[in-house]
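Q: Protein A?
A:
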Amino acid sequence: MRAYGSSACPDVQVLVPVKELDRAKSRLDVPDPARRELALAFVLDTVSTALRCEAAVEVVIGTRDAYVAARVTDLGARVVVPPAPGDLNGDIGWALGRLAPGRPTAVLVSDLPAMSLADLDEALTRARRRGTPRRVADLDGTGTTLLTAPDRRIEPRFGTGSAGRHSAAGMEPLGDDLAGLRCDVDDMQSLRRAIRLGVGPHTAAVLSSTSPDLLRDDCVVGASTGTTGK
């Protein structure tokens, strides 16, 4: 195991909040069964990459969706179930309280099918080395895909314009060069962008069965896994 920051072993706990599939990715212009399948595939590719990251000591999923919980548990993640009802930032705050105190912490969004292992590892390594709260903006520059801090005391401000709110809260920018980590998928334009970067195997499999034209138009070689992508 390589050295990470000032530690000789992995020490970052990564929290991934996940919406219920019935409410996820409503802006994707695909039939409802495919929308649910894609939303789940994004989660599985994101979590699979996080679990393989050498910097991460644990990956924790915060979700009320029992099917998502079962699938990510099979991958090796730990699940915590926020009390219902609650908004995203409240759910994240609750889940952060279930993590270990005094340990480097990251909050990672769940819709990053083009995120490479190298991108996530590099972002967590840089954040750990700098030792101050950091945020990664999405490719549009307005949203947020990753928050990091030296401990679990993170104040999430997700929602429209979250990059600006996180900056105003004192979180410094990180990872402008890490395109896969910045490519969250909310609509068809961002899905095509992710395909061009290269999506993971779960997303590629769903696209192959539900939207093969998208893959034929945009896909060449997968960025993070070597699967079909560009």
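Q: Protein B?
A:
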Amino acid sequence: MMGVMRSSADAGTGRTARAVPARRSQSTRRHIIDAARAVFFEAGFERANLDEVARRAGIAKGTIYRYFASKAELYVEVLVSTADLFDERMKRALDPSLGASDQIRQLARFYFEHYTKQSEYFRIFWAIENQGLIGDLPAELVRTVTELWKRSLGHVAGVIERGIRTGEFAPCDAWEVANIFWVATNAVIQTAEVEARRELWDRDMRSVFEHTLELLLRGMQAGSA
């Protein structure tokens, strides 16, 4: 009987011993991501230094490569780690009591405010479009980021579909039009990131953003043709 009890205790200790490294591994991974987020936000991808990431995470630089194959992979992981929060905030910006046009405006307002308050996040969000800079990403990471975009675009497409059903919008391919909205509004924001282009505009960025949005909405109105 004592032998059975001792064996059970030993087995339990073994399970605990195996669990501790797993918890420690997850904790280390989280520390790396948190440190990388701060460094990438401050320095951007090109100037970000993995030595600094390691210093802030309190680990040796080599430990980073036990979790991430490259700086580019770590860069995208930072995006993925914040995507759920972004998506949740985007859903909260929707108000079913509004008409479709006003819901689109509401989403656009959220998007613009999110950019003005967290512009560093958007620079990371656009990482997938800059593979010439950060290097070719593994196909799995590209698929992950693509799914994040699809999830956000799905909210816009859903509003457009409701507008079509109620007769507020003319019949159209809701997914295609959602992508047009996404491309056009991002183009305004990304253009404003370049100082020379801002000077060329000689216009307030918020005003340009809102005018772009209204032009698109006018084209979607039922009977606008």
